[in-house]
Amino acid sequence: LGNKTQRNLQFCYHQKKKRANTMALALRFLTCLVLTVCIVASADAAISCGTVATSLAPCANYLSKGGEVPVPCCGGVKSLISMAQTTPDRQQACRCLQSTAKGMSGLDPSLASGLPGKCGVSIPYPISMSTNCDNVK
């Protein structure tokens, strides 16, 4: 290869390497940004979606088929209510409920909305996919 061609190839190689390094740096920055947002968003809310899902797992069969509400289901509902004492906790619980409901096939929305009453408790917002969780206090 000629000297000029060799220099052009080296130039192209270094440009690609710079772009790859820039992309890697941008990806690291974006990852840090996303993690920071997630940490800040969850810092106010002590309740996690895992906790919500675990608390309400005994309710899954009832929420799709109806019948008697299992005692462990009501225990989970009451436990969840006692954990969600602050506005950020209640908003997070609301979001988690909606997220979990989207993933459940066969969920009967009327059974879900009536569950707190069946367990003898009340919550300050309706259980519904249309509830704006940002408005939950």
UniProtKB/TrEMBL annotation:
| Transmembrane helix as UniProt keyword | no
Query: What PROSITE patterns does the record tag this protein with?
Result: PLANT_LTP
Which controlled-vocabulary keywords does the entry list?
Answer: Disulfide bond, Lipid-binding, Transport
Annotated Bifunctional inhibitor/plant lipid transfer protein/seed storage helical domain ranges read 49-133
Q: Which InterPro entries match?
A: Bifun_inhib/LTP/seed_sf, Bifunc_inhib/LTP/seed_store, Plant_nsLTP
The record, for SMART domains, names: AAI
Q: Which GO terms describe its biological process?
A: lipid transport
Does this UniProt record's set of keywords contain Glycoprotein? no
**What does the record give under GO molecular function?**
lipid binding
- SUPFAM superfamilies reported for this sequence: Bifunctional inhibitor/lipid-transfer protein/seed storage 2S albumin (SSF47699)
**PANTHER family recorded for this chain?**
NON-SPECIFIC LIPID-TRANSFER PROTEIN 2-RELATED (PTHR33076)
Q: Which family does it belong to?
A: Belongs to the plant LTP family.
What does the record give as the function of this protein? Answer: Plant non-specific lipid-transfer proteins transfer phospholipids as well as galactolipids across membranes. May play a role in wax or cutin deposition in the cell walls of expanding epidermal cells and certain secretory tissues.
Q: What is this protein called?
A: Non-specific lipid-transfer protein
Organism, scientific name: Capsella rubella
According to the entry, what is the taxonomic lineage of the organism?
Answer: Eukaryota, Viridiplantae, Streptophyta, Embryophyta, Tracheophyta
